[in-house]
Amino acid sequence: MRKIIIANWKMNLTPNQSADLVVEFKKKLGKENNNEVVICPSFTALSIVAEKIKKSNIILGSQNVSWMAKGAFTGEESISSIKELGCKYAIVGHSERRQNLGETDEMINKKISICLEKGITPIFCIGETLQEKQEGTSDHKLYTQIKEGLKKIDLLPHENLVVAYEPIWAISAVRAVTPHDVEPEEAEKVFKFIYQNLVDLWPLTIVNNNVRIIYGGSVDENNSKDFGQIEMINGFLVGGASLDADKFSQITKNI
Ligand code: PGA
Description:
The protein is an alpha/beta fold. The chain is built from 11 helices and 8 strands. It has an 8-stranded parallel barrel with strand order 1-2-3-4-5-6-7-8, surrounded by 7 helices. Bound molecules: 2-phosphoglycolic acid (PGA). 2-phosphoglycolic acid binds next to strand 8.
């Protein structure tokens, strides 16, 4: 399976700034990259970024999507709209939405369902808080997020899923996170745990062929080299460092 590197620009750029950044990034990325590269701008920048990445192999994703097809949901965006603008992926259940906007496992489950039904690949985010890590309840948290987020979802052979493990304590860390913060063995253990939980849900062939488990949390142009060595990591979800064309293009080459 190809590795996938996803830029999550969050709410950092205006549409014009997004257009400028993607043009710069496109030049840096070149044509040689074998990995799949996805850019997730904010909703208002999707059209302009879609325009700029035409004739490139950069793929468009959204940072969120509604679980309802259409109707009276002020401020939400529908799956039909993001598809019409060219999105192939949607981030679902990012910890910032879970924490700041009260997004629940149940909402996330509905979003994953509609994405799969309508042909958008969900980037399903999971991860524990620092407190949960210190209390030793990380596994339980991840187990619950997987169980509830994927409840009644039967991943079919033509459907794909990306599971992004983002320990909340490592996201946008002020200090430079290196694999010494998330030790490779520790990361590998968590990835095996996530993989095992997916295998408990779906046939092995589906998990091996249709699901990529990726890492996120202060990934940058330096630590991505070490994380990239961990066999079970199929890619990265990158926030801060994806706002810099040099850094992000380097990250796409480090895995
Ligand atoms: P970060 O963000 O790379 O800035 O830590 C990652 C994310 O929140 O997806």
